[in-house]
Design goal:
The protein is α/β, with parallel strands linked by helices. It has 2 domains: 6-95 and 209-261, 3-Layer(aba) Sandwich (Rossmann fold), CATH 3.40.50.1860; 97-208, Rossmann fold. It has helices at residues 16-25, 47-62, 74-87, 97-106, 118-123, 125-133, 147-152, 159-176, 192-198, 207-221, 242-251, and strands at residues 6-10, 31-35, 68-71, 93-94, 111-116, 138-143, 180-183, 203-206, 234-237, 258-261. The strands form 2 sheets. It has a 6-stranded parallel beta sheet with strand order 4-3-1-2-9-10, with helices on both faces. Strands 6-5-7-8 form a 4-stranded parallel beta sheet, with helices on both faces. Helix 1 crosses helix 10, helix 2 (47-62) packs across helix 3 and helix 4 packs across helix 10. The N and C termini lie far apart (37 Å).
């Protein structure tokens, strides 16, 4: 048993979808969440900058006695996972990509679409890992850089967002001919309803959900599951925007949480 909280971080609001899934799958666990909203999005930044920001985020979470770190960001997972594990070898640090790849290949998918940020798509990390697990799998990738800023600006449930999704995906889905789609950014479950309405035959895989399944397995294996913790979830942001507060209010309306403003080094 280990009642210490789990540290979760993202470049902004998207990682809250992983926290929501964590509460569903592991209701006894408690969370310290850090959204680097002052410097979002990470997807258009250089690898060196992404690694620097990721290290700052994890340093903060580790200093708060977290038992595990979940990188609820595909861009950081693709760019900084190895550097973070090297910095903190004694703490389980989990990224969102490998658990998603394991689920997709385990389900026997043959043709898979991936949508993500420019940095994630540019790294081809999903294509490489999917093909390493199944050399015959066909992978089609599309960067959708405008989706994250629109979500961060609070425009998730709008016609503008639906039109943006269609702009990126209409030709992509038609020309790719795939039936399975990886939401390769933790922001993207927030627009899944638009994808579902536009392309009802697509089966979606959420990296936000798959990383929590992986976390649950590791916690069980290491006998680190919480039991009766009195710790209250804490949600930190490097910029306390109205959108961040609105998102936490919407996703966690039935939970008791406190929001604290954290100023990270710029």
């Amino acid at each position: 048993m280990d009642n210490r909280p789990i540290g979760v971080f993202d470049s902004g609001l998207g990682g809250l979808t992983s926290v929501q899934e964590l509460h569903r799958q592991l209701p006894d666990e408690r969370v310290i969440y850090l959204g680097d909203t002052a410097r979002t999005p990470y997807g258009s930044k250089s690898p060196e900058t992404i690694v620097k920001f990721a290290i700052q985020n994890v340093d903060y979470l580790v200093a708060r006695n977290t038992k595990m770190i979940i990188i609820a960001c595909n861009t950081v997972t693709a760019t900084a996972l190895d550097a973070l594990r090297e910095r903190y070898p004694s703490i389980p640090i989990i990224g969102v990509i490998q658990p998603t790849v394991k689920k997709v290949t385990g389900d026997g998918c043959k043709k898979v679409g991936v949508i993500a940020t420019k940095a994630t798509i540019g790294s081809d990390v999903y294509g490489q890992q999917l093909r390493s697990m199944n050399p015959e799998i066909e992978v089609y990738s599309m960067a959708c850089p405008a989706i994250v800023p629109l979500i961060e600006d609070g425009l998730t449930d709008t016609e503008i967002m639906k039109l943006t999704v269609a702009y990126y995906m209409d030709d992509f889905v038609r020309e790719g001919g795939f039936d399975d789609l990886i939401l390769g950014c933790t922001h993207y479950p927030l627009v899944a309803k638009h994808i579902r309405s536009l392309y009802p035959n697509l089966h979606m895989y959420s990296s936000s959900a798959e990383v929590i399944r992986e976390a649950a397995e590791i916690l069980k294996e290491k006998d680190m599951l919480a039991s009766g913790s009195e710790f209250i979830d804490r949600y930190y942001a490097s910029d306390m925007s109205d959108n961040f507060i609105a998102m936490t209010d919407r996703l966690f309306a039935d939970t008791d949480f406190k929001i604290h403003l954290l100023k990270l080094e710029q």
